[in-house]
Amino acid sequence: xxxxxxxxxxxxxxxxxxxxxxxxxxDLRVPRLATVDLTGRATLEVVPxxxxxxxxxxxxxxxxxxxxxxGAWNVFGAGAPWRGGPAYEIRAVLATADHTAVGYRLPVLxxxxxxxxxxxxxxxxxxLLGPDWDPxxxxxxxLADPDRPLGEALLDQRNLAGIGNIYKAELCFLAQVTPxxxxxxxxxxxxxxxxxxxxxxxxxDANKDRHRNTTGSLRRGQDLFVYGRARRPCLxxxxxxxxxxxxxxxxxxxxxxxxxxxx
Length: 263
Hints:
Shape: elongated
Number of strands: 10
Helix content: 10-25%
Radius of gyration: 20 Å
Largest sheet: 4 strands, antiparallel
C-alpha cells in the first residue's frame, strides 16, 4: 500500500499536469460513473489527504480516489504511449491538450460535491504532510487506547493519516519496540509517543520528494533498517531481521534492537 509520501508525490504530478487546464477528455470506467463526463471543466487542484487523492474541478465537483494496495495514477505527454498496465486495468482517463492522466487498478473512484469531501476524508486524523498536521492531537489519538499494539495504532488513519506498512515497521524500530508492544507499555508513553509522532512527520516530509524511502540518517541516504529485510542483517546491529503477520500484513523487526512481545 502506498505511503503518505507516495500519495503526496502522485498529487503533485497530477496537479502539475492538470491544474488550471481544461479537460478535453474524460473517461471514467467504473459502472456508477460510466455516464459522467467532465470534459470542458478545468481542474482547480489535485490535493492529497492522507492516502486519499482529491481532484477538484469546476462546478464544485471532486473526483475522489484511493490507491489501496496496487492502484496508480500515471501521467503521460500528449500522444505518448500509456505504460502502467493492460487496458482492462484502466479505471480513469483525464486529459488536457498537453497531458493525459491514467488511473490504473483504482479500487476507489467516486465523484462527489467538493462541499461533501468530509464524507470520505472527515474521519482521518491529522495529515502528516498536510496543512492540518497537529502533533499534539496525533499523540493524544495514539495514547487514547493504551492496550492497542503500537503497529496497529500507527496504521490507523483515524489517529494520524499517512503511515503505511513501511513507516510502521521503521517507526517501531526507531522506538526500539516490536510492533506488538502495547502503546501503554512504552517507556514513559506520555513523552515517547509525541516524539514518535514527530519522527513520523520528519520521515514522511524528508522522503516526499524522493522515490526511495530512507530512515536512519536521512542526510546520508541510509536504507531502511528493517522493512523488507527478512533474514537479512539489521543495519544497526547485524542480527537477521524477522518477518511475521500483523493485522493481515507483513511486518518486520529486529529481535535484538527491539524489545517486547512477538507473535
